[in-house]
Amino acid sequence: MLFALLCGLPAGAQEDAPTLGDDENGGNFLFIPGIGKIPLPPGARGYGPGNPQDPQDSLAPRRLGPKAANPRPEPPKSPEERQAQELARLFDRMRDADDERESQSAGAAILHRWSRSGSDTVALLAARALAAEVAGAPSLARALLDYIVALSPNWPEGFVRRARVMASEGDVASALADLETAARLEPKRFDALEALGALSEKAGDKKRALGAYRKALEIEPRNESVHKNEERLRIEVEGRDI
User: Fold this and answer.
1) Which of 26, 55, 71, 166 has the most C-beta neighbours closer than 10 Å?
2) Which residues, 6+ apart, have CB-to-CB distance to 115 below 8 Å?
3) Is 84's pLDDT higher than 60?
4) Contact of 223 with 196, CB cutoff 8 Å
5) DSSP output for 20-37
6) How far apart are CA 7 and CA 86, in angstroms?
7) Where do the structural domains in the chain lie, given as residue ranges?
């Protein structure tokens, strides 16, 4: 009805905006030029130039900000990144293992991943070198491993395998050098550190062996045999605690 009244206003009256007011009894009214006061129901509120809308009103229209841009999907991880994540999880599992069996399981999985060269040529040579080693032909195995190390000088596995063959031939000095190289290329090569400790001890360098065992235990603290070796050498090298 109010809309009908407004629509029926004279043109001059429509130019004057309606206003709100309070009467002497505390009520509200709407004053429309040309019509007069129109009482408003209790609690009713009007909005307009004379009574701007309360900004705290929950029904007040809100200005929406720019639409949030959709987050960009993460690019797919490379094979190297995926392998690094897998190895990190396995190292955590080995470090936090409840017993030696769980630690060995994680260690076997790590060694399996380290055995992948990423090269078909190197993989073929490595398979043939292993076959020669198992067949009791260390000279052939060593010759093949020399090629492998030359082709992939940054692959620690090649040095570990060649060190094993060298040690079987009695070339302890060369085996130690290869194990040191493997541990330098990959500081977490616990297998290289264990072998380094055993060969150093065999060569009479107990201090060097003790250091290698301790580094290995930092990576795989559940290895009981390395624990025993470290404890035995610690007493021999550093003496018993008083």
Assistant:
1) 166
2) 126, 157
3) yes
4) no
5) EEE-TTS-EEEEETTTEE
6) 75
7) 118-185
Cβ–Cβ < 8 Å for 34, 5: no
Q: Write out the two tokens for 97.
A: 């293992």
DSSP-H helix ranges across the chain: 2-7, 11-14, 79-95, 100-114, 120-134, 138-151, 156-168, 172-185, 190-202, 206-219, 224-238
pTM score of the predicted model: 0.68
Q: Is 142 within 8 Å of 161 (Cβ atoms)?
A: no
Spatial contact of 213 and 191, defined as CB atoms under 8 Å apart: no
Q: What is the pLDDT of residues 121-142, one digit of tens each?
A: 999 999 999 999 999 999 999 9
Residue 123, pLDDT score: 95
- Tokens 């060995």, residue located: 104
User: For the domain bounded by 118-185, which CATH number is listed?
Assistant: 1.25.40.10
Query: What confidence score (pLDDT) does residue 30 get?
Result: 58
- Select from 181, 191, 193, 135 the least CA-distant residue to 156: 181
Give the number of other CB atoms < 10 A from CB of residue 27: 13
Instruction: Please give the single-letter amino acid code of residue 45.
Output: R
Write down the pLDDT at residue 78: 83
**Assigned token pair, 161:** 């395998």
Residue 41 vs residues 27, 29, 103: alpha-carbon distances, Å: 8, 9, 79
